[in-house]
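Can't paste images in this forum, so I'm doing it all in text. The chain is below; anyone willing to post the predicted structure tokens underneath?
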Amino acid sequence: MSNGFNGLRVTAFESRRANEIEKLILYHGGVPQVAPSMREVPLSEATEALEFARKLFDHEFDIVILMTGVGTRTLSDAIEGKYSRNKFIEALDQAIVVARGPKPVAALRQMGLKPDIQVPEPNTWRDILEVLDRELPLENKRIAVQEYGISNENLLSGLRERGAIVTPVPIYKWALPENLAPLRDAIHSIAEFKTDISLFTSSQQVHHLIQVANDDGKEESLREGFKNLAIGSIGPTTTETLNQLGFSVDYEPNSPKMGNLVREMARRGEILLKKKRIAFSNGVNTNKWHRVNMIWNKDNNFDPKDITKNSALMKACRLEKSDYTPVWLMRQAGRFLREYRELRSKVPFLELCKTPELAAEVTLMAVDRLGVDAAIIFADILLILEPFGIDLEFSKGDGPKIRKPIRSSKALNSLKDFNSEELQFVYEAVGITRRALDPSIPLIGFSGAPFTVTSYLIEGGGSRNYENTKALIHRDSSTWHELMDRLTDATISYLNNQITAGADVVQIFDSWVGCLSPDDYKDHVLPFMKKLITNVNKNTPIIHFGTDTASLLELMKEAGGNVIGLDWRVDLKEAWTRIGHDRGVQGNLDPAILFTNPAVIRRHVKAILDKAQRRAGHIFNLGHGVLPATPVDNVLALIDFVHEFSSNS
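Text version of the structure:
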């Protein structure tokens, strides 16, 4: 739970802002070694810039893409050396100007201009193409691309593939520093295993580092040294370069800013370094690895559960005191994380769920990224329906759809007998994750509760009023009860198989049950929840969660569960009193609070912890899942505040 480097030796390759990154590393408790790796060399006589200006004045460009702030200013200065500033500004204003991120925007602002299109973070070439695809037809468009250092061939070819006529406008190129001594010292430190963390803030730094090491005959020892340190990359382009050159990146901030990289590596670097060195010592090639390749102990007799059972979350499930309040977040491996969005852009949701290595990697990614106290397996509550022969479809933006809802006894008879083996991909993902997950971090398996899953099956998708579900309950209770009974038996098997595969805790999501009255819950849900919870492995803690359940808390306790999950609509202190202190509680920050700022989040976190009174059995969580547009920095702040306040109380 450290928020600083704690004396770790941090090597950075920043050049233009070398002094700034050194100060940042010092501020966060690191021992800096800054080795400038690049030098800007202006192109002689600005020939390309002046040719660009001539064509711009003659209206030969429809679109101008400005890639960097420094490049925009350099381009402007070169043109203003021959032409008037106003002439350049007027000509630029006639074209569609695309700014790659905030720095070109700031440079344009100095000229009194605003971009027509601003590419959002992380400002990669893929983001540029995605924005242009959305905003403009590119067929036969004449596009000038202001370049920085080296050509981005992926961007240029992507534009040409879309039918654009592309003119690169190089402004300067990158060269090695005139003084290579700091870079050679850094290579020596890495090769001698004297560096703990390395920070890369551009892809060109990687190329120059390898070039100098190769020239000096040190490349092989440099590569070996990188196996024993944690690598932080500022963003996707730099990460892609590191990967192409044979290095796995251990951390990349959500926002590609130098300050974020240093701060977040200070927050997670010590833990990631420990993990990487354990993997390296156990024979893992950590230059080319994924999280699922982690080996914590080569001893075949090693049982991680001996460590896991003493974790803060497991203690909370047993109502035992721990050193701090454990925190994890529902949907912690979701759309608010850029890494997840990038993966989802390439892999359909169901394919991701059904590919055990990918599901495990996503599960582990959230733990490495956020520093939470539990992992929850990446899956979906409706996967359990497919073995019944239900055709399940996930439409982008529309959520899950069931083409043939079950709303009658005749439709019920069309269901296949449930075969738990058809969900083997979930059990494999659980097994892979448990092997690769830090033994001190519990793994949560989960299912939907029978009511919520059955309601999806009846409604055919999302619902506001659950009219079909409630109608079936009251019109044909025998069909309802048979449906619930079949889903309950299936869920028992499903959860027990996850436990056998390695889940340490299971959570049952009853996301829709708050639509019921207490009487309807008691008559039509409670018997099945009792049956379910009674028949899940008795050595495994159960978290029983529902939303909008203020009127159902006593009944949920009667249904069972070691921990009752609370949404944000109830007061935690009052709810725990109603439930009884012989059960743990989980929750219950409103997810919308994460759209405010750290000061507001801090206040709300403290208020919830104060209501819990540091009583054994509290697990901090949101009142429901992380919302897709949630700022990642606010999520990190939330987790740190929970640890800070609960550790000091």
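The domain at 9-38+178-289 is CATH 3.40.50.10090 (Rossmann fold). Residues 477-501 form the longest helix (25 residues).
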